[in-house]
Structure formats: C-alpha cells, structure tokens
Automatic annotation (TrEMBL):
PANTHER family: QUINONE OXIDOREDUCTASE PIG3-RELATED, QUINONE OXIDOREDUCTASE-RELATED
SUPFAM superfamilies: GroES-like (SSF50129), NAD(P)-binding Rossmann-fold domains (SSF51735)
Transmembrane regions listed in the UniProt entry: none
Protein name (database record): Quinone oxidoreductase
PROSITE patterns: QOR_ZETA_CRYSTAL
Organism: Phreatobacter stygius
GO (cellular component) term, any one: cytosol
Pfam families according to UniProt: ADH_N, ADH_zinc_N
Amino acid sequence: MVKAIRIHKPGGPDAMVYEDVSLKPPAPGEAYIRQTAVGVNFIDIYQRSGIYAMPSLPHGIGMEAAGVVEAIGQGVTEVTVGDRVAYAGGPPGAYAEKRLIPAATLVKLPKAIDDKTAAAIMLQGMTARYLLKQTYHVKKGDYVLIHAAAGGMGLWLCQWAKALGAIVIGTTSTDDKAKLAKKNGCQYPILYTKEDFVARVKEITGGKGVQVVYDGVGKDTFLKSLECLAVRGHLVLFGAASGAPDPLAPGALAAKSASLTRPTLFHYVATRKELLANAKDVFEVVKNGTVKIQKPKEYALKQVAHAHGDLTGRKTTGSMILIP
C-alpha cells in the first residue's frame, strides 16, 4: 500500500483525502514510479473542484512530478529501472508516493536538473514554451502583456519573453510582487489594484496596444485584455484562475481584427517527439540561466489542503511542490 491524495467527490480543499491505495505491477507500456517531488498547479484546483471532471471517482489528482523508475511493464523502451524522470500530463494522479503511469509520458532528467526543480518546472516550463513559441511566436520588439506576472507561470513567461526580445508588461496585485516581476524580466509592472491596467498599457505602447496578451486569470481580466490588444493582436487565454469568462460573440473581435485562442499543453505534446522537443528546450533555458527558477515552496503531501489554500488565495509567488 502507498499513500495518495484522492477525491471521492468534487469540492473544496477538504475534498482531498490522504489514504492508502494499492498498486498492481506495471502493465505493458507502463512504468512504476517512486515519486520524490510533486508539482502543484491551478489545473489541480480545477480537477478537485469538478471544473475538470474526473473519468471516475474516487480518483487521484495532480499532473506533474519527478521521481525514479522502480519497475517497467512489457514493451517499455522509453525508460529503464533506475532512471530519474519527470512528467507533466498523462492521467491525473500525481499526488502520491508512488504511481503507475504510461512510460511514453516520461522524460529522463539531465544531471543538472534536480528532482525538486524538475517537479516545479515541467508543466509551467512546457506551457511557457508552447505559448511563446507556438501559440503565438514572440518576436523581437513585440509588446507582450502577462497577467499574474509574479506567479509561477508569470515568472516563466516574463523571463523567456524578454530573452526572445519582447517588451514585457505585467500585472501584479502588490508592490512586492511588482518588484519580483521586474527582477525577472518584466520591464513594466502594473499594480492593477492601484492603476487601470488598460490605460497604462496604452500609455506604455503609445496608444497602439500589445501584440499578444497571455491571460491565465480569466473572468476578472478577459474583457480588459481585449482592450489592450493592438490591431491584429492575439489574446491567449490559457487558464481561468478567477473563473471562466462570460461568452463572447465573435463579432467583438472585429474592431481590431483580433484573434482569440484557448490552448492547452496536452495538444502541444501529443506525440513523443513533441514532448521530448518541448522538454529539451525547457531544460536548456533553465541550465543556461535564461529562466532562473525560484526555490519552490515545499509542503508535505498530507498538507495538500494548505497548499491549495495558499494557491487560490494568491499567497505565493513562484512554484509549489509537495514532498511525499
């Protein structure tokens, strides 16, 4: 038996139950992983609350972790026993001491990336990579607006976008978060609790607006994000931390010939080749210092409710991990 966090019905943080589960030997194509660190992300909140429905209940939650391969099933060629690995995706169930997972979702870790760092960078790093280089290809001189610029995802986007040559504007809720964002690539932090961020964006861009907005906040920022766009600008809605935006008529985009997209990581790493290419880029920007990773905030696995409360209460900056 191993300890895992599971939900028996959707709900708040108290819906997560720390309990014993039994695991079978790995089936063909599966690997058995002893997990050393587990990432905490907003998608986990959506799973816990029922916004993203689980295939059945009770069920584990969580999408990201690092650890060591302890056994493999028949036909597995992607990893071998003893490999240090990490993943972001696959079936939910990362909140656990050990788990079974399709081997094709695993990426071997380079020596320069420790387990705690790996658990904190896989989902956010690969998300940042596809957002900046695929959903919209950020170019030198582009004005980019990033909401929640001091959060884990925001810090990735700010640093990497600046390295690509963008002029980075970011929204934050406090002075301390604004300072952190500026330290990490955001040339123009905007304190949205004190300033009208639409007016400030227009001021910074000389009235033209930004080429792209990366919005992981959702309902609270969505319509104002549209106002910040330049003609033929792109609004990339990749999350909904404040709730899902209200429906938008397509005609609302016509005033600026704007485009709106709602991408998800798993469509950008759908093949093994795509996964490995994305992860390779993420490891490289961490190793060469393009993106500097804050030490993630750690919680014991059984403290997961506390971790979720801190995440939804916007009490954290950077990444969060659970230690089994």
